[in-house]
């Protein structure tokens, strides 16, 4: 069923908005909402008591208290420049360097915090020199020989 509207609504509203308005109003009429036009019994019989046709008449008579809100795009002007592959590589490399520096900085900060915690707890181990290992191995060999003999 095609709806032909004689008024200037076809210029004001899109066909989708008209369909939505008529559907909403016909639903209201079907649920016993009052008719906004004064229609005689003969006219109602002529319309066959059809809520959609009554809604069309109300729309043509401009008596519907329904408004349509259209979302409009925000106006923003921005020049978009197409980048070459070399420029893209440069930007990616710069970003990677920044990320690497951030990671290294965080790693150093974590190490410093760990060192402070270790110093506070007193769990510092000294670095062993090769000379210390030689002395330990000689003293332990002598002890082993005494235990055997």
Provide keyphrases for this structure:
single chain, 149 residues, mainly alpha, Eukaryotic RPB6 RNA polymerase subunit, 2 domains, 6 helices, 62% helix, elongated
**Secondary-structure content class:** mainly alpha
Distance between the termini: 115 Å
Tell me about the largest β-sheet.
none
The total beta strand count reads 0
Rg, alpha carbons: 43 Å
Helix percentage range: 55-70%
How many domains would you count in the coordinates? Answer: 2
What this model shows, in words?
It is a single chain. This protein folds into 2 domains: 9-60, RNA polymerase subunit, RPB6/omega (Eukaryotic RPB6 RNA polymerase subunit, Alpha-Beta Complex), CATH 3.90.940.10; 85-148, no CATH class. The protein is 62% helix and 0% strand. It has helices at 9-12, 15-30, 41-46, 51-60, 85-121, 130-148. The protein starts with 8 loop residues before the first helix and ends with a helix.
Could you provide a short overview of the structure?
This protein has helices spanning 9-12, 15-30, 41-46, 51-60, 85-121, 130-148. The protein starts with 8 loop residues before the first helix and ends with a helix.
């Amino acid at each position: 069923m095609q709806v032909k509207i004689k008024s200037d609504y076809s210029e004001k509203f899109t066909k989708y908005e008209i369909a939505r308005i008529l559907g909403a109003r016909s639903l209201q009429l079907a649920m016993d909402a009052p008719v906004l036009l004064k229609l005689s019994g003969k006219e109602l019989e002529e319309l066959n008591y059809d809520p959609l046709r009554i809604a069309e008449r109300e729309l043509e008579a401009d008596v519907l208290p329904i408004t349509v809100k259209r979302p409009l795009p925000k106006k923003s002007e921005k020049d978009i420049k197409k980048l070459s592959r070399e420029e893209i590589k440069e930007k990616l490399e710069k970003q990677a360097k920044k990320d690497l520096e951030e990671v290294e900085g965080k790693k150093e900060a974590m190490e410093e915090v760990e060192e402070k915690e270790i110093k506070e707890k007193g769990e510092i181990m000294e670095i062993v020199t090769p000379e210390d290992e030689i002395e330990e191995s000689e003293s332990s060999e002598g002890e082993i020989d005494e235990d055997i003999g």
